[in-house]
Amino acid sequence: MSVVTRFAPSPTGFLHIGGARTALFNWLFARHHGGQFLLRIEDTDRARSTQAAVDAILDGLSWLGLTWDGDAVSQFGRKERHAEVAQRMLEAGKAYYCYASPAELEEMRAAQKAAGQPVRYDGRWRDRDPSDAPAGVPPVIRLKAPQEGETLLKDRVQGEVRVQNAQLDDLILLRADGTPTYLLAVVVDDHDMGVTHVVRGDDHLTNTFRQIQIYNAMGWDLPEFAHIPLIHGPDGAKLSKRHGALGVDAYRDMGYLPEAVRNYLLRLGWAHGDDEIISTEQAIAWFGLEGIGRSPSRFDFAKLESLNAHYLRQADDARLADLVVPRLAEAVGRPLAAAERDLLVRAMPGLKARARTLVDLADSARFYVATRPMVYDAKAGGLLDAGARAMLKDLAAVFAAEPEWTAAALEDRVRGFAESRGEKLGKVAQPLRAALSGSTVSPPIFEVAELLGREEALARIADAANGSPG
Ligand code: GLU
Predict the structure, then answer these.
(1) N or C: which end of the chain has fewer CB within 10 A?
(2) What is this structure's pTM?
């Protein structure tokens, strides 16, 4: 059997992190089995569905690299098919028309509440002759659900879960206006799309019993179900915005790489021994439903950040430069020149070794594209006192005489210069760092000097030596 999975988001908001994890698991499972990963947009709630949300979902999935097979299916576009299936159940005696008015149902519920009974549809039209139908009342179609026995869900994560049928009432399949309910639409679509494995959040567990009843009424094979425990906040409570319940686009803006988010989401609820760093290739090779844990996972920003730092160090320098360029352009308020982008590519090995996010990376790269005079941060400004400025003036003369403008040659010069003055290397290197980068922390300073180039580096040293305002 070829595996078919699907991701079925409702386009009522952005692609949130829990949805992204569901999509990832479905994608990995399909890719692992050489099967298909389908995308269905559950847009039947016309009032709450928006095109902007559809776009945000497609965009988020694409950013994460979770490519779906074929075109995205619109659930709303299949409403005739949903109605047709409800009709078939009606004809087969598996469903019936219910003419109870909203006011009548309200009364029924109130009476059940007053009597301390569970509130559920009491089946008043289940066996009633349709010739009793009141005139002018459009009926809903309800499932004639089994009243005895139990419905069993053999879940691939949760194990066997059962519910007594007496506890489930006759759910509505088709509303009075002819539109399908969510439960009907999902079952018909999963069946028609050939979905073999339904992997989704365990908030859908109770829906599943009702969906199984619809499959059974139609005589359709059940797919395999796997309900993943939800993601909780670090304190174990429901995930809040502060704790990471954000759209995937927010993670992109915060400077995380898609491969880091993928690795992080994979580990949120799935394990392969003690492995923490798992490449996408490994994830495809290893992924299986048996690795999904049964308890809720906790969102941990620190872990995401350390994974991101790892993937930043591994990332291609040109790619990182291209990711950082728009952030820097915004920070400096002008577009960057091609030469500046090239400088960033060359500077990237030194920069990426220290960054945890693209935001850090852009911050730490900014001095490379800063326009003179440099703005010194407080510590750097403090370092550039009269003594340091005088020292930099002498150093500038030594540098100007250096024919070979390389990190190694400049380092030799500085060492010799410090020795000749009986100073420690740091006494010279730190003011030099302040002059060139405006800060007391930067990549290795001789490398910085080489990358800035003779002219720019000497100009920055001269600015600092002359006490240009910082
Ligand atoms: N549309 C549902 C949601 O966004 C998912 C339905 C399903 O996966 O069966 O929660």
Answers:
(1) N
(2) 0.93
* Backbone angles phi and psi of 335, in degrees to 5: -70, 150
204 lines ligand 1 (CB under 6 A): yes
Catalytic: 241?
Answer: yes
Task: Classify 136 in phi/psi space as left (phi over 0), alpha (psi -120 to 50) or beta.
Answer: left
* Distance from Cα 367 to the centre of ligand 1, integer Å: 47
Ligand 1 binding pocket includes 42 (Cβ within 6 Å): yes
Q: How far is CA 120 from CA 46, 151, 386, in A?
A: 26, 17, 84
Closest of 420, 440, 423 to residue 432, by C-alpha: 440
Q: What is the pLDDT along the chain (470 residues), one digit of tens a residue?
A: 799 999 999 999 889 999 999 999 999 999 999 999 999 999 999 899 999 999 999 999 999 999 999 999 999 999 999 999 999 999 999 999 999 988 999 999 999 999 999 999 999 999 998 888 998 889 999 999 999 999 999 999 999 999 999 999 999 999 999 999 999 999 999 999 999 999 999 999 999 999 999 999 999 999 999 999 999 988 888 887 777 778 899 999 999 999 999 999 999 999 999 999 999 999 999 999 999 999 999 999 999 999 999 999 999 999 999 999 999 999 999 999 999 999 999 999 999 999 999 999 999 999 999 999 999 999 999 999 999 999 999 999 999 999 999 999 999 999 999 999 999 999 999 999 999 999 999 999 999 999 999 999 999 999 999 985 44
Distance (angstroms) between ligand 1 centre and the Cα of 42 equals 7
In 3D space, the residue among 221, 217, 222 whose CA is nearest the CA of residue 93 turns out to be 217
**207: CA distance to ligand 1 center in Å?**
10
Tokens in use for 182?
């969510």
